Amino acid sequence: SLVVLFGATAGAYGAKLGSDERELILLVWQVVDLPSKKVGTLHKSLVKADNLDLSDQCREVSGLTPEGLGKAEPLDRVLQQFSQLVSSDLKVLGRSSYTLCTDGQLLIRQVLHPETSKKNFLLSDCFYSFYDLRKEFHACYPSSAAVKDQTIKTMAEYLGLGTDETEEDFGVWQVKTMVAIIFSMLSENCNHVFTEPETVKYKYETGPCLLWLFFFFLCSSKSETVDSETVIRARGLPWQSSDQDIARFFKGLNIAKGGVALCLNAQGRRNGEALVRFVNSEQRDLALERHKHHMGSRYIEVYKATGEEFLKIAGGTSNEVAQFLSKENQVIIRMRGLPFTATQEDVLGFLGPECPVTGGKEGLLFVKYPDGRPTGDAFVLFSCEEYAQNALKKHKEILGKRYIELFRSTAAEVQQVVLNRYMSTPLIPTLPAPIIPVIPPPYTIATGSIRDCVRLRGLPYTAGIDDILEFMGDATADIKPHGVHMVLNQQGRPSGDAFIQMKSADKAFMVAQKCHKKMMKDRYVEVFQCSGEEMNFVLMGGTLNRSGLSPPPCKLPCLSPPAYAAFQTAAVIPAEAALYQPQALLPTTRTPQASAAAPPTVTYYPAQAAQLYMNYTAYYPSPPVSPTTVGYIAAPPGAVAAAATATHTPILPQPGALVRMQGLPYNTGMKEILSFFQGYQYAPDDYNGLIQLSDQARSVLQAPKEWVCL
């Protein structure tokens, strides 16, 4: 038997059903006995939604009102009634089992499963298997329209059935017409058989994902080994989200086994993004319709991604990881902050008998650096949810003299973390590996105290260069070439700020007066006049607020990376690289005397990065990333030597003569650093020009030289 089911929500109707997260307000159904071609009673039930504000389309199409829905039962009660009434009708027809039949997949996958998941109650087994009438119709009538273009009305018209929807109530006509279509398909001319129902997975299957494909991918001439039409990127996830939380967000859609890969930053921490691989492109397309749906109080952005991206996150592994993940259907917990001397026995003793580890020591995986040193991270396998919950209760308990953090983890995260540490660099680093030399651009950021710039604050995060130019209106003609600079945060995303260089201070003043608090995409934008020096401070990583300027790290009186040195000569720059200069490569504010003495710095920037920042390039190209995300990339020794030869400027004789210190106490001063290096050979005076030093710092370095080291 089939149970023909139709439903509607308080929002979108038709092809967009469920895309707006609106709740179910109507269910209509009827039992159809296929062998005898008999039908049961047609039932119509209104559903009381938590939000009774109906969309205009819903009011127009359904004719329902908030007053009528206010008297209905909530969804859980309606579903109980559904099961009882279906069982009763089947008993009358002498049947005991049934399968649902719906018009397309949206009602089951995009409405019922997501809504019941959010409301924390389970659907009965019948909602995990159903027939898609559109697919069955196309299989029966191959010459009909494509499945995606089918509707109840077009199928009825193809068969010559009556299509006057006004004769019946909303929902009733749809179910009666679907029943008539099914009977036509069962006729002697077609003799259609319903054999392969659509299925919804009961739970997300964890496990190692594509264990060996990653290395095949590295060695293969193919660009991908995972279908890009099955992968999406979810952004904006709570940092503590697990793979099960993400699977719950996509409830109703079938995710491939081990298909959730949590993305990590360079420090091995989750960055709020995940790549998800579905079983086919149809499921992926349905997932894209959940763009900006909510996980708790946060909305999640959903975009297309590629198979190559998925492999980079989820495909890498080693023999050790493969063996660790070979035990499937295990709950994985990540431990962080372990003492470097911690042993397997120490970890097992910390967890205790109330949360036994699967396989004992075999269920532990310590993460190590390439030289074998421990990182303080480990992954642990548990055979059931109960043991994992007991382990999570030990979050921030003490082992030795350190508190230990425990989090839920995934197989993809295990692979990514271990491979990152094994390679000693991030799998997807902040910036890709150096490839081509970038020569200084022929333009510079303005400096000085002339207030010929404006600052835009409160921009929509989706705003691009074109939006800013449209916002500026006629004043666009007064913008200097290459004068629009987007300020990005440390994750490389728009911060809501931008700076614009105008041709004069008067033009900047007029723009600030005209455009201040003007609307851009439903948000008002504040516009302030500022100087090139103030703009330069912010673009180089400083802050500008009511309290004044807070200088960036490169402006503080301390040793600064050489990538912040000023460029002195303009040169021709390759066309493919000209539009993608990182902010750290642009000149900083320096006096003419200091600039004259500083040698040029050769900095490298990879060609692939051009593809990452296309949105921030237009006729007025904007540097793609803020300097806080770029840091600096040292050039190969040959490039440095070539630059030195060309300009006849003394430079360091060999690589490695500079050291970078990390992990300093925040109150560390110059004297503490010099004391730390006491006893090492000093650097000759000729090398001072390679580093930005204040006069005070230079005087200190020139004092007792026998204990200074660079």
Automatic annotation (TrEMBL):
Q: Identify the PANTHER family for this entry.
A: HETEROGENEOUS NUCLEAR RIBONUCLEOPROTEIN-RELATED (PTHR13976)
Instruction: List the residue ranges forming a coiled coil, or say none.
Output: none
Query: InterPro entries, from UniProt?
Result: ESRP, Nucleotide-bd_a/b_plait_sf, RBD_domain_sf, RNaseH-like_sf, RNaseH_sf, RRM_dom
SMART domains membership:
RRM
Q: Does the keyword RNA-binding apply?
A: yes
**What molecular functions are annotated in GO for this chain?**
RNA binding
Q: Which UniProt keywords are present, listed alphabetically?
A: mRNA processing, mRNA splicing, Nucleus, Repeat, RNA-binding
Is Translocase a UniProt keyword of this protein?
no
**What gene, per UniProt, encodes this protein?**
Esrp2
What is the protein's name according to its record? Epithelial splicing regulatory protein 2
Per UniProt, subcellular location reads as:
Nucleus
Principal localization?
A: nucleus
| UniProt GO cellular component terms | nucleus
A single BP term in Gene Ontology: mRNA processing
Renumbered to this chain, the signal peptide range is none
Q: State the species of origin.
A: Lophotis ruficrista
Family per UniProt? Answer: Belongs to the ESRP family.
**The RRM domain, residue ranges:** 230-307, 331-411
